[in-house]
Amino acid sequence: SKKQAEKSVHQKKEQSKTKCRKARRRHINLIAEFNHRQRKNIWLETHIWHAKRFHMVKKWGYCLGNSPTEKSYRACYRAMTKHCLLQDLSYYCCLELKGKENELLKQLARLCSIDTGLTFQEACCLSGRFEGSLNLYRADRYPEDMLGPVTFIWKPRDGSENRQLWIWVHPALKQDILRELKAIFQCSEPEEICITEPVTTSVQEEKQLEVVSSLGNKRKKEDKEGEKAVPVKKIIGDGTRDPFQSYSWIARTTGIAISDRSMEILRFRLIGPLSHSVLTETLKAASIQTV
Fold it and tell me: Which of 55, 70, 85 is the last residue of a domain?
């Protein structure tokens, strides 16, 4: 028993030597490990910042910050009332519609009602100046069969009859709303058979993890092999969609295209009286060059 205890201690020492911090923190190894940990629940781009400061929960295919670990409630309230508080809402899903304005409005009118107030045709929203919000229903079923609340933004007009519309939906509602949109626009055919390029395959992940785990006395040699290995790319996708599914569809009759832009367009909410000044200090308008 004494020999076994000594043997286990010796094994522990060897294991600790094989994974030195420098090797574990190498960029390529970190990305491989992070991708491996995101197989079931996707991380937002602010995940690591939140994970250090919040209790995390797994919801709707994402890993989200639920409540702070420190007593920061007063600081958040102070920021909301006197300064600026930023929230990451990138887990909300973005559905993009492209096509002729009259065709888009004709079919979208079937999903909402003027009796509820705002529609996709509201002038201030249609111009692209303001974001709108409304409740969607199954086609021609108002006031029954409500799908849920959404917000929407029209891309400002560029002189063409073709328009672009972004509809933001909660991830729990995305599949139902996407199914209804594809049905009313008859977008049954994929625009293209598309596999998201930056998705890491499990084989690549395992190779990279093997490089990390095999670091031992021949550390330099293994490091060189690791550098030659295929670079691991960051996962692009979202928790509501398999990365190997198509994410764009087109209607052959009208040319209307629907694309799932979830996690491709990030979304942040700024709350507080200094929100506008924070934005103006942070964002600088690009100079428009006409050729």
Answer: 70
